[in-house]
What we know:
The protein is mainly alpha-helical. The protein has helices at about 5, 10-15, 20-25, 35-65, 70-75, 80-105, 110-115, 125-150, 155-175, 180-215, 215-230, 240-255, 260-280, 295-325.
Amino acid sequence: MSEEQAHVPKPEAEKPFDNEVFWEKINTKPAISDFGQFFILLGLIGAGVVAGSLITALLIPALTHTSLMDIQKTMLNPQYADVIKTIQIIGTLFMFFFPVLIYALIVSNKPFKHLGFNTIFSRKQVLLIIGISIAALFLSGALGQLNSLIPVSKKWAATFKSWEDSYNDQVVAMMQIKNFGDYLFSLLTIAIVPAIIEETLFRGGIQPILIKWIGNPWTGIIFTSIIFSAIHVSFYGFLSRAMLGIVLGLIFYYTQNMWLNILMHFINNGISVTALYFYSIKGKISKETMNDDTYPLWVGLVALIAVIYLIQQLQKESKTVLYKADLKNLPITH
Length: 334
């Protein structure tokens, strides 16, 4: 232990990190109510969805040289997989990333600070995030199994299955990866960029507003997670994505570090892309392989215990990291 570290008092005993103080420090523009902030962001997202959908609808036929009337068939054609991936990223930027960035510019003089892009972290935090990511995969698989046991009417079951089949058809078309270059491109467009966009919107934008508006961190995190899962329009994946949203929400609340959230989201997406890559090069990718990642409920229980323990350790480590940064008068964010 260095002399500098020896003189750092324990944060739990002296000055625990206060999340409310963190947000007060970065909101330097005239205050806008939590209600007002929420509806500013909601309005910007609405405008972004319109713009992104229009751009997507125009780019797909233009870049694939197909008819606008055949856009659904085009999106399911493996021949255009790379083009579709690129266009979807462009559309998603307009739908979700640009709106939350504009929102941050409106409510704060330091928009990236407001969204939690924090450069202060420890090696232990990174290792804990990796551990949480692995445990959460098993928990997600068990929740997928539990989700399938929820009783629904035949009519709704048929509707949910059609949604799932439509989504799986598109994934299969997009994930016909022929070589390592295709794999890297898929990692970029399906794992890295979506992780940045979704975490910035949900954990950096929506979650802090709901926590402050409702006045309860857990309630704000759960509501954000429900919205996060719902936009993926998948009944049979709802519990798994909601759980992932809660875990990501807790990570951001405790660490105030968007990069750590992006890391976990990327690991989750990246493992799926990697599995589909190996299925693809073996010629075994199909809708059926999309449902091979379910686990027994007892596996989920063990994984849940592991996730809870690791998050508790992350909370303790994050409190120490943020306290030391504050003690040394280091900028918590850039």
